[in-house]
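Appendix B. Raw example, untouched.
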Amino acid sequence: MVTPHSVTDDDPAGDWTAPGVFRSAPDVYRIPLPLPQDGLRAVNVYAVADTDGWTLIDSGWALDEARDLLESALKALGSGFGDVRRFLVTHAHRDHYTMASVLRREYGTPVLLGRGEEPNLDVMHDAARRPGDADAPRLVRSGAHDLARQVRDTPWPVPDVTQWEFPDEWIEDRAVLEVGEGEGIRRLEAIETPGHTRGHLVFADDASDLMFAGDHVLPRITPSIGLQPNPVANPLGDFLTSLQLLRSRPDARLLPAHGPLGRRVHERVDELLAHHVTRLDASLAAIDAGCGTGFEVAGRLRWTRREHHLSDLDLFNSMLAVMETSAHLDVLVERGVLAVSDEDGVAIYRRA
């Protein structure tokens, strides 16, 4: 049984994953919902007061426990699922999208998603697709043949495509979405920020000094880059460009999908850009030391805040590490620092 929630003010120093309803700004409430993963632990769904109800930014993973907690949170706000006017979803990863898809079938709640995510949903609905199909070829290109074999042979859970139904409306880049009416109207600008996924959106409320940043800007960790059913050629290049875009806009309070509040967008963007400069430098040093492939370079680097070796990571995180390393090397190629050649389907990097 889920304990009924009460509404409290958000405490950036508290446990951001604790269940509850947290007042983040006037008429904006953060609702953490659980994830069945040790790393992320929870996803923040934001309830924004709308005309006779709520607009929810992201929705959570379609799990029974998360659904019960979301229902309890809405009850604490004097509402229920039938009072949700629409879901604005930052991207199509399961911890953001699938609960909205399920609740729409029951309550008819419109679901809106960035236009750039359409190619990912197209692939999700391909009956011939198997989990890992997009990732194994990228691992082979990185020289990680054994990892690619493990990814192909692992019996990954088959996604329930009914949880990834197409949205009611595609959101175009720079669309302005109005929430509420009259003097209390709130205007959210949807800004396309590819990198984490190809069609990721953030929602900027400049008048209220807020940015609902999804997974693009996270306060404590760096988001994974380009993990999606339909990969792009240069996900890290896209991500860095998107960070620079947000740095060029007005600063705002950061409302992330994972992690506590309390940061500013520009402050955290600067840290993320600096982190990737460090990783680019380390990747280049590994090439200079004799490494030639993404897999070899990944083996020279350290991973997570605990400075793990690549061999310490599980299969999923090893895959992420190798693909992210190759993404860094591809940025160095794009910048003219490295050259790349193809040898039997493997990308070999060297100084330009």
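End of appendix B.
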